[in-house]
Design goal:
Chain lengths: 390, 159
């Protein structure tokens, strides 16, 4: 008889080798401590606006407990189409170009899986959200990071992309405003990126989830450039702009053929997004007042925290989007991880080391200002005291 | 409303340095604007919002609906001014609907408030009727929840 195999050997090799998110190690560490001020939370500190919650309660009261159409309810898809047309100037047909998903996370997963063949390369700018590279790996593709720099405001340029593109490049993944840097790109800056995607015949996958949290200038998407809609998968959701993270509701917009491909995966793995969340999302799209009010509040907290960080000698560019600051901490002889660990240890403040967002995040720290004003002020006092000791 | 006023309404104790930073203004500019608001009476005072329910004080509060005969010159103003001068009256509003004035009145006990209404308010010339409602519990005051809301249970670290 063979010696029994270890359970680990049953795990598919590609998953075995996939490192778990650096953020999870940090999470375990922070969770074990008391009295921590956390600037490491990647979600709004607002509770979902009451009228949206109330709509979900009303729907539950009235027995909305069923499946919906795979693509999501037609009412929600129509409302999404109207919203995207109004804000981004891109027209999608709610019948066959819009697919409601369980958060942007699912939308990203099915978008990558719909276009990537084993060995295909996917370009993405870094530092970036923790899921991009693993998503590509899990689709058996090859993630290719394009590092961005503080001196460029963490924006992407065509030159950076030209350096990394190969005949195997299949897609470009974009996320502006960016988690963790807060970087945004203007229409003028995006134009050469659109050109690059067209000339190399690539698919663009755009994660627009922070779009409503753009402080200056209009929200804009690569999908709105000439010749781009037919080669773009536009991903968006309600988590950040409407403070609805727990509702897990997102969507993917794409030309019918691409949408149908994503739909195949979606119907087999997910069936449909939860009906209560869909009802709530429909209510969310009825007004932009909540989003405007939250944006104004984030902006004030951004200004306060950015000023404080620069004052204490942690140089920080003023980001134009999302709710993160990405100060440079490299001047103190510590790595990002060492800095974050010691800050947690000595001052009980949790910030995520920049390296959790890719190798190019070394030397940085992600500080989220979607945090109570009082906590921000106390955290700034503590970080300043910590920096002084270094 | 001006963002500065909004911030002060949320927390009147916020430092001018922080206010300046949040609004991207200079500190002297913020100070000057506050002084100007105070001078013109836009800002009329600064108060703490106190949860009196938990203090167990001998205080009762009532809202009183008052019907009034308006006067040819000045409408409701003369009577309203007269009523608002009583220290027992915390707030007074002219309302649309089935009555005219809404007064928030406080006293040490039910009897004292009732006496105030019958002896002082109802006897004013032009007051046609009053209807008194005693407050039992305060859930929200000046936009602040008085009962502790469930903590927002965000996980401590998330991507």
């Amino acid at each position: 008889m063979n010696a029994s195999k270890s359970p680990r050997s049953f795990v598919a090799p590609y998953l075995r080798e996939l490192p778990r998110s650096g953020i999870r190690d940090f999470f375990d560490l922070v969770s074990s401590r008391k009295g921590v001020i956390s600037l490491s939370i990647g979600e709004p500190d607002f509770v979902t606006p009451w009228h949206i919650r109330e709509t979900a309660i009303f729907a539950l009261d009235h027995g909305a407990t069923t499946y919906t159409a795979n693509r999501g309810t037609i009412e929600l898809r129509r409302a999404i189409a109207t919203y995207i047309q109004r804000v981004f100037g891109v027209a999608y047909n709610p019948e066959n170009e819009i697919l409601v998903t369980v958060g942007v996370s699912e939308a990203l997963d099915i978008a990558v899986r719909a276009v990537v063949e084993p060995g295909d390369e996917v370009l993405y700018h870094e530092p970036c959200y923790v899921s991009y590279a693993p998503e590509v790996l899990m689709a058996h593709g090859v993630p290719v990071a394009v590092p961005t720099r503080r001196e460029d405001g963490f924006r992407l340029t065509r030159e950076m992309l030209e350096d990394k593109v190969t005949p195997r490049t299949r897609a470009l993944l974009l996320n502006f405003p960016t988690n963790p840097t807060g970087a945004t790109m203007t229409r003028e800056e995006l134009a050469p990126i659109a050109e690059f995607v067209r000339e190399h015949d690539l698919v663009a996958i755009t994660d627009e989830v922070y779009s409503e949290l753009t402080y200056e200038g209009a929200q804009t998407s690569l999908a709105s450039f000439p010749g781009m809609q037919e080669r773009t998968i536009f991903l968006h959701g309600f988590s950040k702009g409407w403070a609805m993270t727990g509702f897990r509701i997102g969507y993917a917009c794409a030309p019918p053929e691409l949408s149908e491909a994503m739909m195949k995966i979606h119907q087999y793995i997910m069936m449909c997004a939860p009906i209560l969340s869909q009802k709530a999302a429909l209510e969310a799209l009825r007004s932009s007042a909540d989003t405007n009010e939250m944006r104004a509040s984030y902006l004030q907290r951004r200004n306060l925290m950015c000023g404080a960080l620069n004052d204490m000698g942690l140089p920080c560019h003023l980001p134009n989007g999302a709710f993160y600051l990405f100060p440079y901490i490299g001047g103190h002889g510590l790595t990002s991880k060492e800095f974050a660990m010691r800050l947690l240890d000595e001052e009980n403040v949790a910030c995520v080391p920049g390296t959790a967002f890719g190798a190019s995040g070394e030397g940085y720290l992600r500080c989220c200002y979607a945090t109570d004003l009082k906590a921000i002020k106390e955290a700034m006092t503590r970080i300043a005291r910590f920096v002084k000791k270094l | 409303m001006d963002e500065l006023l909004k911030l002060l309404k949320a927390n009147a104790l916020e430092t001018t340095a922080n206010l300046a930073r949040m609004l991207n203004l200079s500190e002297p500019d913020v100070k000057a604007r506050i002084t100007e608001y105070e001078r013109t009476g836009i800002i009329r005072g600064y108060q703490a919002i106190v949860n009196t329910d938990d203090l167990d004080l001998p205080i009762v509060e009532a809202v009183i609906e008052i019907k009034v005969t308006p006067e040819r010159d000045g409408g409701f103003n003369r009577i309203a001014e007269r009523i608002s001068k009583f220290p027992e009256v915390d707030a007074l509003h002219l309302m649309s609907g089935t009555y005219d004035l809404l007064a928030v009145v406080n006293g040490r006990n039910l009897k004292q408030v009732a006496l105030f209404v019958s002896a002082k308010l109802a006897t004013i010339e032009g007051v046609l009727s009053t209807s008194t409602h005693f407050m039992l519990k305060t859930y929200k005051e000046h936009g602040v929840l008085m009962q502790a809301e469930a903590q927002n249970e965000r996980i401590q670290v998330s991507p």
